[in-house]
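Figure 3 (text version): structure tokens given as input.
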């Protein structure tokens, strides 16, 4: 988002991040020296800190990407997910309403809000049926944004974004986990080393994956309409984890027609000759699974003039290429 705003607008970016003893700013290292980029300490779960920051900075826009974003960890940290993903939104809306009501507000919503879906593709009218503490917190935030918009006339929106990936994706998410492992296994085989197969959970879950860079533009468009409205952003295409695995290995030289899925259930393996590339580890199964997500972003395409530029195959290749290079 910061890259997009620096390249396409004149805004000064005040980027808030939680204070850490050992900094983890790998994804923003290239921005630190930019005079239009100011990094401040901000903990969105601290109401006073949020209020003071908005009061001091008087932002024209407030974009909240500070949620806990890993669904898998939300069962072990449910309270933290409610505080960071829902209560934090309330603190932000309240502070904006009290001290900078002209500020345009975006909160990152998620297709996980649709959860155990009734129909596909899911549009903005699909009921919220979350399947995880993460999803429940995002639904709560969604209602808060709508209530503050309708009660106080704030320009506040929550985009419902289907899965978005890229070269900066966290390594515990399935796409990046796959592309990192493909790079590792490729190098280890080239170096004639023994290698450990990639371990995954549910291979048959289906997701609507896009390139995060495409969504950034959609978010900025959502923030700059005449009146505030929530939109879905998605590729409108769905692929399984299994397909992602096949395409990622295929691009690295393990041709799909020379590889084979063998066995079933927790014994299933993806083999290349005698080499096991992928095996199942049940620890990556979730207590409750969202089996499929497929978005319908027609209103965003028609009303905002937005459309994604990178398709599924290009996204897989971009991520594998980057991890092999690294
Ligand atoms: P999510 O859609 O926001 O939960 O994104 P993830 O990338 O974490 O997970 C996408 C899907 O991949 C879910 O249905 C997971 O159950 C499935 N999956 C299968 N194996 C794994 C794994 O090893 N790690 C993760 N994170 N997800 C996995």
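Below: residues designed for each position.
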């Amino acid at each position: 988002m910061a890259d997009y705003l620096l390249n396409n607008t004149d805004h000064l970016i005040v980027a808030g991040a939680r204070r850490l003893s050992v900094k983890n700013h790998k994804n923003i290292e290239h921005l630190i020296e930019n005079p239009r980029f100011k990094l401040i300490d901000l903990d969105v779960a601290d109401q006073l800190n949020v209020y003071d920051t908005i009061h001091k900075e008087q932002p024209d826009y407030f974009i909240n990407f500070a949620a806990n974003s890993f669904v898998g960890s939300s069962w072990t940290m449910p309270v933290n997910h409610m505080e960071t993903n829902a209560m934090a939104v309330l603190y932000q809306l309240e502070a904006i309403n009290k001290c900078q009501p002209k500020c345009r507000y975006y909160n990152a919503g998620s297709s996980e809000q649709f959860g155990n879906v009734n129909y596909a593709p899911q549009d903005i009218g699909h009921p919220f049926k979350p399947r995880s503490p993460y999803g429940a917190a995002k639904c709560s935030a969604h209602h808060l944004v709508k209530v503050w918009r309708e009660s106080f006339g704030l320009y506040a929106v929550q985009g419902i974004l289907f899965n978005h990936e890229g070269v900066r994706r966290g390594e515990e998410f399935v796409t990046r986990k796959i592309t990192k492992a493909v790079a590792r296994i490729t190098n280890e085989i080239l170096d004639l080393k023994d290698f450990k197969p990639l371990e995954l959970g549910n291979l048959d879950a289906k997701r609507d994956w896009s390139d995060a860079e495409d969504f950034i533009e959609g978010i900025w468009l959502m923030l700059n309409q005449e009146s505030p409205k929530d939109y879905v952003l998605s590729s409108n295409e769905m692929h399984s984890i299994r397909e992602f695995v096949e395409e990622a290995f295929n691009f690295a030289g393990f041709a799909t027609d020379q590889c084979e899925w063998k066995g079933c259930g927790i014994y299933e393996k993806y083999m290349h000759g005698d080499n096991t590339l992928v095996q199942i580890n049940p620890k990556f199964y979730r207590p409750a699974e969202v089996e499929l997500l497929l978005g319908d972003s027609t209103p965003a395409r028609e009303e905002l003039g937005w459309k994604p530029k990178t398709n599924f195959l290009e996204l897989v290749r971009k991520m594998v290429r980057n991890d092999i290079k690294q």
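The chain has a mean pLDDT of 97.
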